[in-house]
Design goal:
Blueprint: H1 2-12, H2 19-31, H3 44-65, H4 71-78, H5 82-109, H6 112-130, H7 136-164, H8 167-198, H9 203-222, H10 231-237, H11 240-252, H12 254-284, H13 289-297, H14 300-317, H15 319-342, H16 348-376, H17 381-403, H18 412-434
Helix pairs in contact: 1-8, 3-5, 3-7, 3-8, 3-9, 4-5, 5-6, 5-7, 5-17, 6-7, 6-9, 7-17, 8-13, 8-14, 8-16, 12-16, 12-17, 12-18, 14-15, 14-16, 15-16, 15-18, 16-17
Length: about 450
């Protein structure tokens, strides 16, 4: 989050000439149309949504990743199999994704700030209970509830960005959230490993509860509503029939579906590795939980680098060229992992090095996939963000469920799974180019 804030300060210092000025003017004209509902603002009104977005993304992904080093210990303490321990990830992802279908319409009608605070309260309470709850089934249920609370941070924060940004500037703003995701991707398992050295593994959830409470305090003080709907329009927006109809229209529109699927499968590349790698490193390679956490920290670097490249170049190059670069990196990394595995290599280097290349590509692909659905439907930013988050998280959960059977005695099966996902991404990037989405 600090890195994202620092990058934001650097962006604000950029001179307003050249292509940046032209794009800003274009975005202001776009957002002043009647279907946008609100316009570009400046100063604190731009910073607060970005900072809240970084915090919301960090919390949501930290809840997914922080206990990865503890999965073998969780399986031992609850006396369940390795596959069963991975169900805690699936349960969290299920709540995380499904809940966004409710949080999105609520934020459009009820308001961003109120919805955000409600979700943070639920997340923090569930995290506290996870510290003490006995039994594996109650633990799974609370992980589901924790994911439900975390879902508000993702869907509402993205909608907040669409309230004040548009087009390539929206993609640039999303890149700051990608930086926060990158920090969570590596820092959360690292912190989980460190906690495991000095405290029981359940202390991970105490840290999440404290972070959730701190974020709620910051949101209550700093986040303001970009717009307020009249009570009659608010009630109309929250009617179940209208919400369902609007979701159906979004899901059928290629402008929404294609970039959303890109974000979903791009995230799936990271999540399938995250579900398999603890057992590879701790059981096959002999790493301790803290050692695995340190290894996982390195994954933040390429994702952060990809987000920085996106932030710097998206205004000049456009989305399509950067999507192609990201896809190329994913294919190169997956092929490298396969070739090393076929050559008989199966160690920390042969598994981690190709994944670093893959994650760099994901850092380019995912922020674009998350930004463009909201760009195409500005007056439904909350619902578009929610449905995008739902498909992203449920797709990741489905990938984890399918990945449970991947053997951990070789890296070839994992590499093949990554290549299959990369092939799907190639089709989606091509379809996105045909939509004329690059500006």
């Amino acid at each position: 989050m600090l890195a994202a804030a620092a990058t934001l300060q650097g962006w604000r210092a950029l001179p307003p000439e050249g292509p940046c000025r032209r794009v800003s003017a274009c975005c202001r004209r776009y957002d002043q149309r009647s279907d946008a509902g609100f316009g570009i603002t400046s100063g604190a009104a731009q910073r607060s949504p970005i900072l809240y977005g970084c915090a919301g993304i960090f919390l949501g992904q930290a809840g997914l990743f922080i206990d990865l080093p503890a999965l073998p210990l969780l399986a031992r303490d609850f006396q369940v199999s390795a596959a069963a321990s991975q169900e805690t990830i699936t349960a969290y992802a299920l709540g995380y994704g499904l809940s966004q279908l409710a949080w999105g319409p609520l934020s459009d009608g009820w308001g961003r700030r109120s919805t955000a605070l409600t979700g943070l309260a639920l997340f923090s309470l569930a995290s506290l209970l996870l510290v003490v709850v006995p039994g594996f089934v109650p633990f799974l249920i609370l992980r589901l509830i924790q994911g439900i609370g975390a879902g508000s941070g993702t869907s509402v924060s993205r909608a907040c960005l669409r309230d004040v940004f548009s087009d390539r500037l929206l993609t640039r703003a999303m890149s700051y959230l990608a930086m926060s995701y990158a920090l969570a991707l590596g820092l959360a398992p690292f912190l989980g490993g460190l906690i495991g050295r000095v405290a029981p593994w359940r202390a991970d959830f105490l840290l999440l509860a404290l972070l959730g409470a701190a974020t709620a305090v910051a949101v209550s003080r700093g986040l303001t509503e970009a717009r307020r709907l009249p009570p009659a329009e608010r009630r109309a927006r929250l009617r179940l029939g209208k919400v369902t109809l609007d979701y159906g229209r979004l899901a059928r529109d290629p402008r929404f579906l294609v970039p959303t699927l890109m974000a979903s499968f791009g995230t799936g590349l990271v999540v399938v590795y995250g579900a398999i790698s603890p057992f590879d490193f701790e059981q096959s390679f002999g790493f301790s939980p803290s050692g695995f956490g340190l290894i996982s920290l390195s994954l933040s670097v390429p994702y952060l680098l990809g987000a920085l490249v996106l932030s710097h170049w998206v205004v000049r190059l456009g989305q399509q060229r950067l999507l192609q670069a990201g896809l190329g990196a994913v294919l190169v990394g997956a092929l490298l992992m396969l070739l090393l595995g076929l050559a008989g290599r199966f160690d920390a280097v042969s598994l981690l090095l190709p994944m670093l290349v893959v994650v760099f590509g994901v850092g380019l692909l995912v922020p674009i996939g998350l930004a463009m659905p909201m760009q195409s439907f500005p007056s439904q930013a909350g619902q578009a963000s929610a449905l995008t988050g739902f498909l992203q998280q449920e797709g990741s959960g489905l990938v984890v469920a399918l990945a449970v059977g991947i053997p951990i005695s070789s890296q070839v099966p994992l590499a093949l799974a990554l290549l299959v996902i990369a092939g799907i991404l190639a089709l989606l990037v091509r379809a996105y180019g045909r939509l004329g989405a690059s500006r």
